[in-house]
UniProtKB/TrEMBL annotation:
GO molecular function: hydrolase activity; RNA endonuclease activity
Ranges where the Endoribonuclease YicC-like N-terminal domain occurs: 2-156
Protein name: YicC-like domain-containing protein
Keywords noted in UniProt: Endonuclease, Hydrolase, Nuclease
Signal peptide range in chain numbering: none
Keyword tRNA processing recorded: no
Listed PANTHER family: UPF0701 PROTEIN YICC
Claim: Nuclease is one of the keywords in the record: yes
Family named by the database record: Belongs to the YicC/YloC family.
Cofactor(s) the protein requires to work: a divalent metal cation
Pfam families noted in UniProt: YicC-like_C (PF08340), YicC-like_N (PF03755)
UniProt domain Endoribonuclease YicC-like C-terminal: residue ranges: 174-292
Amino acid sequence: MIKSMTGFGRGEFQDEGKLILAEIKTVNHRYSDIFIKMPRQISCLEDKIRSEISKVVSRGKIDVFISLENHNDDSKTVIIDEPLAKAYLNAVELLKDKYDLKDDISASLIAKFPDVLKIEKVEQDSEAIWNILKVSLANALNELIKMRQIEGESLKNDLLEKLMLIENVLNDIKLRAPEITKEYKQKLESRIKELTEQQTIDENRIATEVAIFADRCSIDEEIQRLASHIKQMRETLDLGIPVGRKLDFLVQEMNREINTIGSKANDLSITKNVIDLKSELEKIREQIQNIE
C-alpha cells in the first residue's frame, strides 16, 4: 500500500507506576532522518527506539518525543552516611561531657548536620522501562502508519487520475503524428507546383524529402516509451513496498520523452499537447515528493 511521508501518531502505556507517552511526527525527506527527544535517565534506550521505528518507516524526517512520569517517586533515595553520623554523635557526646551539657541528643539533631543524609538518584531498570516504552511506541507507530496509509491512498488516487489525463493527451498525439508527414508532403508538392508551374514534378525527389522529414520528426519510439512508463507507474502504485524513489525516477524518464516529443514533432497541435503533458507531469512530481 502506498504511504505518505506525512503523519502523526501518539501512544501511551502505564505500568508499575510509570507512565510513558510517545509522540511521532513525520514529514517528507529524501532519506530517513530520525530525531529523538527523551528524558536523559532513559537515553540508553535511544538505539532501541530507532530500531523499532526503522522497521516500519523507511523514509522521511521523523521527530520522536518521549516523556516519562514516575508516580512511584522511586527515582531517588536517601542514603545515611553512618561513619559521619557516628563521628558527629561522638563529638556531641564529648561536648556534653566536657561542658556538662544536659540536652538530649536526638536523631533529628544528628540529621541536621551536613552530609549525614544524602539524596541519590536510583539507577533505573532499563529493561523494565523498555517494556513500558515499547508498548507506547508501538501504539504511536500504529497511529502514524494508519494516517500515512490513508493519505497515501488519497495520493495514489490523485496520481491515477493524472496518469489517465496524460494517457488521453498521449493518444491525441498518437493520432496526430501520422498526419504531420502527410501534411508536409502536401505542402511540399503545392510549393513545388507554385515554383515550377507546368513542369513535371520529380516524385522521387519529393519521396526522398518526405522520408528525411518523417525520419527527423518521427516520435513513434518516444510515444511507445512514454506509454510504457505510464504502465510502469500504474504497476508501481500497486506494489506493497516503499516506491517513492522509483516513482521519482519514472517521472524523470517521462519528462525526458515528453521533451523529445516537443522538440521533434514540429507541429503546433502537438506542441500544445506537450505543454499539457508537462503541466500534469509537474503535478505528479510534486505529489510523489510526499510518497515514502
